[in-house]
Amino acid sequence: MKKVFFAAAILLCATVFISCSKNSNNKTKAELLTTGGWRLESKQTRIATATTWTDITSSVTACKKDDVASFTNPSTYTLTEGGSKCNAANPDVVATGSWAFLNNQDDLKITIGSSSIIYSLYLVTENVLTIDEIDSTGIVVVYTRYVYFH
User: How many helices (H) does the chain have, and how many strands (E)?
Assistant: First the structure.
């Protein structure tokens, strides 16, 4: 019985120590979003009535998959070519524009020229950015999920 009590006491002390230590993960969504360039890892789709996602990453050409999306403060968005260009004559910078959070930072709006796309911000961490695009222009609502990594 003393061994169980001793083990429980050690576990409790360890839990208190860990929970009281400084947490470096208390970054804002803006800080997480603007920490480096993001490369597409996967692309998935599903229709509104479905519960599972279908991976369609293979439909993205390698020269697009290695492109780098960068978000900087205050609100600049830049898309640059990765290691492989689809056309060697293309410039390194594919597009520039701006970004903004909407709806209590639940949505991410990217504007390039006069066009804007609003993504649902599903997840943003130190290393993963997941955004969902909703296409409700047709008869069936289609969701496309993009997962990016540093």
Answer: 3, 9
pLDDT cut 70: percent of the chain above it: 83
- The answer to whether 142 and 45 are in contact (CB under 8 A) is yes
The tokens of 4 are what? 């169980």
Express each pLDDT in 47-77 by its tens digit. 999 999 999 999 999 999 999 999 998 899 9
In angstroms, the CA 102 to CA 112 distance is 16
In degrees and rounded to multiples of 5, residue 65 shows phi and psi of -65, -30
| Beta-carbon contacts of residue 112 (< 8 Å; ≥ 6 apart) | 77, 95, 96, 97
How far is the CA of 128 from the CAs of 24, 79, 88, 91, in angstroms?
Answer: 16, 17, 29, 27
Decide: residue 119, CB within 10 A, 0-12 exposed, 13-18 middle, 19+ buried. buried
This prediction has a pTM of: 0.80
| Euclidean distance between CA atoms 35 and 70, whole angstroms | 8
**Rounded CA gap, 46 and 142, in Å?**
6
